[in-house]
Amino acid sequence: EIVLTQSPATLSLSPGERATLSCRASQSVSSYLAWYQQKPGQAPRLLIYDASNRASGIPARFSGSGSGTDFTLTISSLGPEDSAVYFCQHRRNWPITFGQGTRLEIK
Amino acid sequence: EVQLLESGGGLVQPGGSLRLSCAASGFTFINYAMTWVRQAPGKGLEWVSTIGAGGGSTYYADSVQGRFTIFRDNSRNTMSVQMDSLRTGDTAVYFCARGLLDTTSLDVFGYWGQGTLVIVSS
What we know:
A: mainly beta; 4-stranded antiparallel β-sheet; 0% helix; B: mainly beta
């Protein structure tokens, strides 16, 4: 099983700042890494798939990068609406696994 | 518009059974793998099970292997999971999710239902 480790656990930033979230895989997942945003009481929303492809309707200020074992989700200019938990997920093989999440707080 | 609507959640005693269903609309159901993902209260996301587009391939997390059975009815655009021998650790919101791509079961989840809560408790 591929273990995904996200860091930091919590990130507290101000509006307009840049957020950098990390996801590290225990073995290579090639580019098969996705990012989700989840707000309280809601289902997750797909942001990025295959490391760097934005899902439909996702603003350009969300970007993903990386390959192999190290991946980054960058939010270029934070707004209050970005307060959420962010999860990464691989689809390299079975079982599909998720990271434990990074909580992003907007001050 | 893609819509996924889960049903069947509720309170069940340990060792009991429950069947969850997901009604799908707004897309060609037979073209996509379908998946259950769960989230224990205050916890992260856990992939549970996936069924391939045709229904012939099924995949399970080790934590549910042998206790859960996923199936689909492509004539009714529904997917279900039969959950037996339930444990307190199965308590979670269960989400139905559709893959983004129509070419693989190993997919990302572009569409989600709102979830149905399963509580396993005596």
